[in-house]
Each structure stands twice: as structure tokens, then as C-alpha cells.
Amino acid sequence: MPKIMLRLVFSLAISIVLGIIPSIVMSAEEIMEPEQQEWSFDGPFGLFDRAALQRGFHVYKDICAACHTLDLVAFRNLGDSGGPGFNENEIRALAASYMIPADPDERGRTTDADGRPLMREAIPADYYPSRFVNDNAQRAANNGSLPPDLSLIVKARDGGADYLYALLTEYGHDAPADLTVPPGQYYNPYFAGGLIAMPQPLFANQVVYADGTPATIEQMASDVTYFLTWTAEPKMEERKRLGFAVILFLIAFSMLCYASYRRLWHSEH
Fold first, then answer.
1. Domain limits, the chain
2. Distance CA 233, CA 46 (A)
3. pLDDT higher for 209 or 1?
4. If DSSP codes are grouped into helix, strand and coil, which group holds residue 74?
5. Model confidence, pTM
6. pLDDT value at position 239?
7. Beta-strand runs (E) in 30-75
8. Which of 5, 41, 54, 120 could form a cystine bridge with 46, CB 3.0-4.6 A?
9. Of the given ranges (12-26, 48-62, 139-153), which has the lowest mean pLDDT?
């Protein structure tokens, strides 16, 4: 009896292995590794490119915001140190161009006499508003799919900035012969499984940059990647400056300790 059980377990194990390994190999082949790009923020002394951050916000506002939210970024954050560097007047003007739900009035009403929601102009303290009233409305506008919030997307995806850039620039490839692309789905070799619900979002000259930079697909993808890297880590420059200061302090402190040791114990040697 033990031998029969052992054979059964062994056969089951072989079947599982033979069934799992091909699926693992296929999944690995479907996901391409993004090519490493050169980013100004890379390395211990890297900083954000201010012009790229402003252009990237332009791309997000005019293109990405049609489907994706940016829930963790307030208008005032666009003027924070280490960020895009918009001035106070620019931020106020930008915020005022959006209408957001108002607080209940003195009678506790949230709608006007016609039943429409009470609205007000946004102020710098408000967070960037969604174009959708709720997730269901967002799904309905995107064929049932819920586009992810982009505030932390660079941190949430393996490959970070390189992955996002590759994803945005590598549409248009033919799907493998053994992969069927159903209606409402698109092929992108950098997306897990190869099938993504987001159609190609960027096309040449889709925006007009204020600084005259040509709006190629690669340029827009790079700029919005800069911006979304900042939204994911807005304190990056401050963190690097603090880390550098701490290292200098530790070096100076170590030298002081060594000098003190030499002075105090010199006579003992």
C-alpha cells in the first residue's frame, strides 16, 4: 500500500510540474523587460528636470486625466520645493479652472432648486479632481475597466519609470500568433499577459508645449514619466539632500572620534 501511494504522489507531482512549468515560461515570455533609460533623477545626486515636470503635468492634464485620477496630489503641491515649480498665481488660476462639489449650504442642502449639485471653484488646497463622480461612472466610460490612480503608479509597478516609458511608447506591435486579442483589449508587450484595456494614449503633436518642445510620442512619454515619478516620490530631492548631509556628518564624526581616541590613548602606547 505505501508503494502504491508513493507512486500516486510521484505521478501527481510530475503532472503538476509538467503543467505549471510551460505556463510559467509562457508568462515570462509575454512580458518584456523595459530598456533602461537615462533619467536626471537617477543616482544619489540626481534631481528632477523642472521643465520636464511642467511638460509632464501638461500631458497628464490634457491626456491622462481623461481616464486616470490623481487623488494624492493637491493643486498647491505643484508649487512645492522639488516639484514642477509653478508659482502661486499659476496654481490659483489652474485651481479656479475646475469646479468641485461644494459643502452643504446654511440649510444643509447639497443641491440647488433644480436638483443640481452645488459646485464651487477649486482652491489651491483642494486635491486634483476626478472627472468622474464615482468608480462606477469611471468604469462605464472605460468599457468596464477601472483605470488605476496614477499618484503612485511608478512605485506600484516593477521597473518603475523605465516600465512606464516602455508601456507608453511600445504600442503598435503585432500580437503573437498564439495570442487572441479580444474586442476592447490591446496588445502591449510590456504589460503583464500582453493584453491591456488601455488603447494607445499618445500620438505625435497631441499637445502643444509652451516652451516649444516638439511633442513626439517619446517626448510626451518621457515628460509624463518624470511627472508621475515626482507624484510617487515628491520628497525625493529633500531625501537625497538629507542623506548626503547625514553621510558628511558621520564622516566628520568618525574622524573626530578617531582623533579623540588617538589623543586620549596616545600615552598608553
1. 23-71+147-260, 74-127
2. 13
3. 209
4. strand
5. 0.82
6. 92
7. none
8. 41
9. 12-26
